[in-house]
Amino acid sequence: KSLKNLLNAIFDVGPSVTATMALLLLIMYIYAVLCTELFGDMFEKGQLDDNYFGRLDNSLFTLLELSTMEWANIVRQVEEVHGWWAAAIFTSFLVLTGFILYS
Hints:
The chain has helices at about 1-40, 55-65, 70-80, 85-100. It is elongated. The chain is mainly α and about 100 residues long. Helices cover about 80% and strands about 0% of the residues.
């Protein structure tokens, strides 16, 4: 009986978890396209340590890394070149994803 209750609870939560993950993926995709367009050539110019934003998949992985709060090194390198508005982009991303992940 307790296993049945556990399975029912898991299946009841499924739609809300799916909707939350879809929203998170949509936000990450939008920011990945934005970062790829704005910061995609920084590695080629020698302004970044690694190719964080050169391709869309690299940008998605970097944003996933940023959303786990390992952001300081990457954001500092981008902010040195592009200034405060680049930090504003990353801050808005962190606020949005942090709100979704932690609530």
